[in-house]
Amino acid sequence: MTQTSDTPEAVRTFLDAEQSRAVLLASRPFTEARDAVAAWQIGSTLVLFLLMLGFASWMGPTPYLLLLAPFGAGFFMRIFVFQHDLGHRSAFSSARVNDVLGTLLSLITSIPFEPWRTEHHWHHNHQGRLSKRGVDNMNSPMTLDEIPERPAEARYRIKKVRPLNIFLLGAHSLLIERRFPQGFFPFRESFKDAVHNREAMLRAIAWTLPAHLALHALVVLTLGWWVSVLVLVPSLVLGAGTGGVLFWIQHNFEHTYYAEDEEWHKANTAVYGSSYLKLGGVLRWFTADIGLHHVHHLNPRIPNYNLERARRAIPELAAVEPLSDEDLRRSFTHLFWDRDARRMRPAQGKLDG
């Protein structure tokens, strides 16, 4: 079950259908929402966020405020993970409370709630399916045997997949592309037939940015322009870019999982195809345990505050090793899926000549 860069070079095996069902069943007790915990998480985070903004207002317009950007980015990431949980309707026991609070938090993050939730649900239902590549570009690797057929695309991938580029791509995707319908892949031609909430998504896209800008205007009027310009904007960009890197390493690592439709099982996408990024206490808090992505993908109805308990209790999840430094490096070098060995590989001389 251990997935590390030291795993022997052999054809890997995965959970079969019966084993997958058993693991999914074992996850169900951890989906129980604890409303008081969720309310405390969100409420205390917003209070601390406002205290940081109040401190920035008291400091006045000084370039030293840029030093708050990493903390502001952490707050934005934590609030976005809450929005993400609310989109799964996992944080609270009431679907309506999840939806209303998720919509309100989207005004802070600037990421429209309904379209994000729609495409994210699709991601959960199809991640790891080789037949669904090309829709979710963040998680759509080429295979080794496709390199000779599309060498230019392979070279472009090798050239562009770098941590800084993924950071910039994440910031651009979340803060610019998500202002328009085409920034969400449910509005693209290959996906549109599966969409049943198109009008709700369009409404969310139309009013989320104006509402977010109205919050900035309120900050300027009450706390000072410098709080918006020197704290909120840099924090949002830094948080979005860092989030892009986190998205990348959640599924793009050497011992990930892809399969043809007839062999695909959702539990394998979690246990093998989603990473375990072990973070220290402060980073765990700011990311609300999203580093336990293998647990989240097993059952997205598990709220963030139950992820660690589920990881410890379910043997298949407890056996997954966290990504090592070498694993993280290979996330940006092993970019092609080897169908035979069932792992990601570098180009391996396929582009020679």
TrEMBL record:
Entry keyword annotation includes Kinase: no
Alphabetic keyword roster: Membrane, Transmembrane, Transmembrane helix
Pfam family, one: FA_desaturase
InterPro entries assigned to the protein according to its UniProt record, in alphabetical order: FA_desaturase_dom (IPR005804), Fatty_acid_desaturase (IPR012171)
GO cellular component: membrane
Keyword Transmembrane helix: yes
Transmembrane spans: 37-58, 64-81, 200-219, 225-249
PANTHER family from the UniProt entry: FATTY ACID DESATURASE, FATTY ACID DESATURASE 2
Protein name: Fatty acid desaturase domain-containing protein
Species for this entry: Lujinxingia vulgaris
